[in-house]
Amino acid sequence: MGPSVVTALGLLFCISCLLLILSWRKGFGKGKLPPGPVPLPIIGNMLQLNLKNIPESLCMLAKEYGPVFTLQLGVQRIVVLHGYKAVKEALIEHGEQFAARGPMPIFELVSNGFGIGVSNGERWKQLRRFSLMTLRNFGMGKRSIEERVQGEAKFLVEELKKTKGLPCDPTFILGCAPCNVICSLIFQKHFEYNDQKFLYLMKLLHEQVRIGSSAWIQFYNCFPSLVQHLPGPHRKLLKLFHFLHTFILEEIKEHQGTLDPSNPRDLIDCFLMKMEQEKQQPLSEFNIDNLVNTVADLFGAGTETTSTTLRYGLLMLLKHPEITEKIHEEIDRVIGHNRSPCMEDRNKMPYTNAVVHEIQRYIDLIPTSLPHLVTEDTQFRQYIIPKGTTIIPFLSSVLYDEKEFPNPNQFDPGHFLDENGNFKKSDYFMPFSTGKRICLGEGLARMELFLFFTTILQNFTLKSLIDPKDIDTTPIDSGFGKIPPSYKLCFLPSQNM
């Protein structure tokens, strides 16, 4: 390549950089895009983000640019909402304009846009409405689902007893319980904890979340057209989703052979019946692709999030034995050891309720929530956010608000207790997000967390293998979700049993 060509290319590069910077700055100011750091060509603001700890990076940027700021990540222009006021104003007060799901390239690749998680418009509305109605018909939010959770809590206790008080990694056991609750709603099945098919399903779900929260997948989502041609963890993630979809398809085929329209057993039966009703409608959203991906979405949302919260929660309780002891005292006083915990107990157990809330607040499981999207040019405060802009509701900034939760970096159940020791609700408690895209299983997840935590502590004393002050609770990844470090503990049977 001759010197003149190199000079021309260098000049062209400099001009393109200058134009990019000028156009970027032109977008800021009153009535235009929110402020933000100047992006570099191609990579945008990637260098300003630590992909292993995105929440920390966003906090630093908010200090410089304010509660609403703009980033460029690869081909995506993103507006970040920092703090309770900005998140509430966008997702609730302007809920319709901010209700669309933003791009998630790796998940769009595996789902082809089918299912609840990544869909928008009429598809999303129909599938969400159907799923909510069907899950409620099968007991979600009712006494019948509470009985299922209580029953699963007993299976969990029996499985923990088999550890005989010896050191164990709780990851798998804690994953089985919420997974079985979801299986009962979708498959009308309860798997034994040593069932090979169940073991396989649990492994798939756990690996999906672990890889999906890695820095590599965050990089993939910024540069999908480039990274998809490279080797890397995304290829394993695609295989995991393929295996999960195959697993679900086998269940669907089994249901098709045994379906009784007069007696639907679960969500799959109801979906198959809906498919039959609309088979003459060529644009119907009730098809096999949407069924497979909706079931996969429900599994992902209903299993790993709850099991990770349980796993992380037990680690926090090991770290703070004085808090665990107070829960034991409240359980002894309110429930005793002759009956199972129930949801009516929650109102009489303000301290335990506060601890469960503080676990969710402190671990901040999905720090940036799932991305949203504005589907039209949208006036927001003094800015105009262009159609197609991705929106990140930064939930960490709400859950760690210093005024609402003094000393937010400290694990303190007092954040949810008033001066008299009564439970104190907070509008800032948004672990399930808020607005039109709030997690559809929020009520079930809250029930599971209270009943599983309480039942475990009713039956066992938790023993750490190391001094509590030496326990490190720092997540090993903070990409899409926060992944707790691996650990072992002993479940010692309660002396009162």
TrEMBL record:
Keywords: Endoplasmic reticulum, Heme, Iron, Membrane, Metal-binding, Microsome, Monooxygenase, Oxidoreductase, Transmembrane, Transmembrane helix. Its cofactor is heme. Heme binds at C439. This is Cytochrome P450. One of its GO terms (molecular function) is iron ion binding. The chain crosses the membrane at residues 6-24. Belongs to the cytochrome P450 family. It catalyses: an organic molecule + reduced [NADPH--hemoprotein reductase] + O2 = an alcohol + oxidized [NADPH--hemoprotein reductase] + H2O + H(+). One of its GO terms (cellular component) is endoplasmic reticulum membrane. It comes from Monodelphis domestica (Gray short-tailed opossum). It comes from the Eukaryota. Its EC number is 1.14.14.1. Cytochromes P450 are a group of heme-thiolate monooxygenases. It is found in: Endoplasmic reticulum membrane; Microsome membrane.
